[in-house]
Amino acid sequence: MTLDTTFDPAAIEARWYKHWEESGGFRPERPDAEAFTIVNPPPNVTGSLHIGHALDNTLQDIVIRYERLRGKDALWVVGTDHAGIATQMVVERQMEERQDKRTNYSREGFVEKVWEWKRESGGTITHQLRRLGCSMDWSREQFTMDEHFTKAVLKTFVDLYNDGLIYRDKRLVNWDPKLKTAISDLEVEQQTIPGHFWHFKYPLADGVTLDDGRDYIEVATTRPETMLADMAVAVHPSDERYASVVGKHVVLPITGRRIPIVADEHADPELGSGAVKITPGHDFNDFEVGKRAGIAAGDMLNVLDGEANVCQTADGLVPDEFIGLHRFKRDGVDGAREAVVARLKADGFLIPHIAKTKKGEEVEHDAEPRQIATPFGDRGGVVIEPWLTDQWYVDAEKLAEKPIKDVRDGTIEIVPKSWEKTFFNWMENIQPWCVSRQLWWGHRIPAWFGPSKEGGNLSWNMSDYSTNKVFVAESEAEVREQARAYYGDKYEIEFNEAPFAALQTVADYVNEGIPPNKVILRQDPDVLDTWFSSALWPFATLGWPDKTDLLGKHFPNNLLISGFDILFFWDARMMMMGQYNMGEAPWPRLYLHGLVRAADGAKMSKSKGNVVDPLGLIDQYGADALRFFMAAMESQGRDIKMDEKRVEGYRNFATKLWNATRFCQSNGIGASTTLKAPIARLAANQWIIGEVQAACVEIDAAMADLRFDAAANAIYQFTWSKFCDWYLELIKPVFAEGADPDAMPAKETREVAGWALDQILVMLHPFMPFITEELWHAQGDRGYDLITAKWPDPRAKVSKDATDAIDWVIDLTTNVRSAKNELGIPPGAKLAAFVPSPSDLASSTIERSSAAIERLARLTPVTVGKAPAGPAMQVTAQGGPASDVFVIPLEGIIDIDAEKTRLEKALAASQKEAKSLEGRLSNANFVERAKPEAVEKAREDFAYHAGEAERLEAALKRLG
RNA sequence: GGGCGUAUAGCUCAGUGGUAGAGCACUGUAUUGACAUUGCAGGGGUCGGAAGUUCAACUCUUCCUACGCCCA
């Protein structure tokens, strides 16, 4: 097959991808091979490929292709995540556009709509991953809502429940009033926004006064609306200003609620007045203070509904005018916050803030401006409300124990290691994980509630479901069994899906005509956090809980690659669930990479409009170039700044390889037939064999350490700077006009060059799969595709003399070129040279490689012996231990002063170096205390530079 | 407030206790057979600052400064 003169990535990418996928190239049958397994961080089913995915998946593909080439049974599990909140939002938004809404449907109806959406437009990203060249096992594509996955989720939930590691609890959650669901701590983002700090007077009750005579306590808050549900005022136990009033009461303005003054260390005497209002139902700190003050969670007052509008508190003291107001100003309409402040001000309870203008005048404001750390929901984008509800919690602290130990003792290696500290810091301070979500799309919680049985009578507690009887099991059949055991045969058991809201009271229950001998069980309407299911990814994707062969062979996985941003969300939770369900760490190694940033270092975001579309880059430069860029920039522990020039550079690299292959083809260099290096006698051929080995060793070492940058640079440098720049130039004389194409040198060189090019294609394949596969086949008929070829075997014997000889020719060539350039001699000029006292290497190389010396160094003839008298330039050649001086007469070619200047410059450099080394060597401390190798090296370097200086001085003398 | 990370050539980044590297950019130069998406040659860095350890520090330690991230 002949190659076009220009390389066009687009033309080959789709073709090869299709071929690989259809021919099973991504997962060849290798039943007896050692397993190598990676699971892909499942992207959201709603997602589309962004630059971060491109990085993450490129790295994984490099590893998986590398291991596949090394003969392993390489499995890359791929799939998508059902992304509860995100997906439900997408479908609801689409409904909105049609003036439709979720609640127009039954739960089942809506979920079916989501499935429809998923079938039609979900998984865009999986097609985009193909464009990148990712070699995942698509035949086993997974989805976290697959039937077998659901089985795994249910089993895990039930097991955890039975082990007491999942429980229902009433406490404050992070409530998203836009999405109307609880979310976990990790889904909350703290942002600092400008806000206000208001100061209020809370009048003391019963005529009590402070020691200074005041009849009120001053409190301050950034959230005045919560005062409607205040239940205490706290002061520090050691704060003498308030010691006399601890245990006394204040009467809250507006509600008139009588609340105690309590002593609690949470109150900071240094902050404001030292007294703080306590709203246990709406603030995490206050919740704790409230509990310490003896208020049960169930008794804490709540003044906001699910949409964060004011509702009546249990004591009924909130005036009607406030009911229904939103928590704060929204869409230009004042809310409860503004109303409370206005009312307090009107009633004289507001203490104004006095600010000074630049001119020193005092001005009164209602509040002090302040920067406020405020929690936002990462999906909904609105301020999170701490809200008192019943939710399911996972005992994360218990589950974290084994993962902590795994990382501590090296069972799991985190790369780069610097992340370990962050990991420990989080895991050791982990909070209970709220896993229930008030959504319809997701894994339904396998818990059913029924009336509790007290002394033979059934009773429902409508205000607090957690006190009702709960049955947790994987199926209704099991629940029925449990229920029968609990209620006895006297009751008929029925499952009913009617929403809880339909049965608010016992009276409703009776009114529905439910006979007294019937028990109705209702499943918890909530679903599980999506991360609860993705935590099972390393084994549920392999068939767990069934004991499949696949699971046996591929769990534990070998490596996980993820962005550090999901270390806690996903990686840590996989560790927990791996240990809990499988009794093992899910993988021995975790590689964390950084973010891809915009060229200016800013975080890419849609709102900033600075996102770079990886597909656009692929269109422009080819997938291979983008991949290579990702790999070359991926040094451990640093974010990657986008640099399109560099992507372009790697496109150029691909073109270079393309053209090198064209050159090979034009000289009859084709596919090699052996994995082992061919037998070679010519120095250049031995040299390139040695260089292939060195490159392979370097790449293997880099890959073992997951140094993607080092591996990419090694193959890049070898291909361009060694193979193209030197080897192909060195062998050109063999194929030159007049040379015998059937003679040994040409035959051997064709074999070696073909072999070396093949090794390049194999070693480059993990990084640039498309162009390498194309060239692999262009080079000749092959028994197999490159994707399933064999990684180079770096063992081959090459003679040191041969490689030294080529190093010597290269050094000579470089030095001659450099000298010519400095002296203004045309680079093409062929010059005669004399070698007065050649080394052994020089003697043999001048004889055997005269063609290369003529062609590259452009020296001819090269005469062994003393140069004739007269001006000359001098260059040296080094290779291994050999060091030779070439004298090149300049008569009539160049002005002598230029050569003098050049030599003087070189002499000064050598003398400076020699002097510095001499100084070091004359330091007794250095000679005695430094490592012997270092001393030896210094001696060698000194000898070299001293000799060089001598040679240069002699050359200068000759010039006169 | 706690923790972590980064600071090396104009730019983006590697790097090692023993005379500083790559890519891009820049300068000079080369053009009829692999390749101008190129070749050849070259300029450019007191390795953020200060102190310490060491025969020797860009590298190790401490402190400082700047920037970034995470947690509270």
From TrEMBL:
Lineage, broadest ranks: Bacteria, Pseudomonadati, Pseudomonadota, Alphaproteobacteria, Sphingomonadales
Motif 'KMSKS' region positions after renumbering to this chain: 603-607
Catalytic activity of the protein: tRNA(Val) + L-valine + ATP = L-valyl-tRNA(Val) + AMP + diphosphate
Residue intervals of the Valyl-tRNA synthetase tRNA-binding arm domain: 895-960
Major location category of this protein: cytoplasm
'HIGH' region, short sequence motif: residues: 43-53
Protein name per its UniProtKB record: Valine--tRNA ligase
CDD domains listed in its UniProt record: Anticodon_Ia_Val, ValRS_core
Species per Swiss-Prot/TrEMBL record: Erythrobacter rubeus
Every Methionyl/Valyl/Leucyl/Isoleucyl-tRNA synthetase anticodon-binding domain range: 685-832
Domain Aminoacyl-tRNA synthetase class Ia: 16-643
Regions that span the bilayer: none
Keyword presence, Nuclease: no
Free-text comment on this protein's domains from its UniProt entry: ValRS has two distinct active sites: one for aminoacylation and one for editing. The misactivated threonine is translocated from the active site to the editing site. The C-terminal coiled-coil domain is crucial for aminoacylation activity.
Subunit structure: Monomer.
PROSITE patterns in the cross-refs: AA_TRNA_LIGASE_I
Protein function: Catalyzes the attachment of valine to tRNA(Val). As ValRS can inadvertently accommodate and process structurally similar amino acids such as threonine, to avoid such errors, it has a 'posttransfer' editing activity that hydrolyzes mischarged Thr-tRNA(Val) in a tRNA-dependent manner.
Subcellular location: Cytoplasm
SUPFAM superfamilies associated with the record: Anticodon-binding domain of a subclass of class I aminoacyl-tRNA synthetases, Nucleotidylyl transferase, tRNA-binding arm, ValRS/IleRS/LeuRS editing domain
Coiled-coil ranges per UniProt: 893-920
